[in-house]
């Protein structure tokens, strides 16, 4: 698979704008997504990309992840209230896999089949995180600027 040259800041802006439309006025989901961007970036740095993403996927659960993919592509209903924690993990997980696909690191099939994505990422080695760190950092900054912390919501 050929690596693409993509501006991580522009990609983060584009994805965050779409994310805001999907989250809408669900402040709880926005604050939980904000927490995910902070926590997952640290977890990736501490444990590695595959370990952190497999944790993220387990917290999202497969059914929620599939629903997020449909909603992202306008094929499903709007997000309903409930299970914001799972949805925040699923949104983050999807954005990471989608960005990896855009870079040419994983395939579209890998985005739709996370287990295949994990296998591909294991084969790519540790260089992958360095390629996505700027994107993830900008997602975190945008989320911190727009959404309140979970402590402020409760």
Describe this structure in words.
The protein is mostly helical and 154 residues long. The protein has 9 helices and no strands. Helix 2 packs across helix 5, helix 2 packs antiparallel against helix 8 and helix 4 crosses helix 5.
Q: Keyphrases for this structure?
A:
mainly alpha; 154 residues; Peroxidase, domain 1; 77% helix
When the domains are counted, the total is 1
Share of residues in helices: over 70%
Averaged pLDDT: 93
Taking the sheet with the most strands, its summary is: none
Number of helices: 9
Q: Proportion of β residues?
A: under 5%
Low-confidence stretches: none
General form:
globular
CATH fold annotation: Peroxidase, domain 1
- Written as H for each helix and E for each strand, in order along the chain, the element string is HHHHHHHHH
CATH architecture: Orthogonal Bundle
- The end-to-end distance, rounded to whole angstroms, is 45 Å
CATH class group: Mainly Alpha
SSE topology sketch:
Layout: H1 8-23, H2 27-47, H3 49-60, H4 62-72, H5 84-102, H6 108-112, H7 114-124, H8 127-146, H9 150-153
Helix pairs in contact: 1-8, 2-3, 2-5, 2-8, 3-5, 3-7, 4-5
């Amino acid at each position: 698979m050929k690596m693409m040259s993509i501006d991580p800041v522009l990609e983060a802006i584009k994805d965050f704008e779409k994310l805001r439309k999907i989250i809408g006025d669900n402040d709880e989901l926005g604050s939980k997504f904000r927490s995910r961007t902070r926590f997952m970036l640290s977890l990736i740095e501490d444990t590695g990309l595959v370990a952190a993403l497999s944790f993220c996927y387990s917290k999202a659960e497969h059914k929620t992840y599939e629903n997020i993919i449909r909603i992202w592509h306008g094929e499903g209903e709007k997000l309903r209230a409930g299970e914001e924690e799972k949805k925040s993990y699923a949104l983050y997980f999807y954005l990471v896999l989608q960005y990896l696909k855009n870079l040419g690191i994983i395939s579209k099939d890998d985005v739709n089949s996370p287990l295949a994505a994990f296998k591909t990422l294991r084969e790519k080695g540790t260089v992958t995180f360095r390629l996505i760190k700027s994107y993830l950092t900008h997602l975190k900054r945008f989320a911190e600027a727009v959404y309140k912390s979970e402590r402020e919501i409760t």
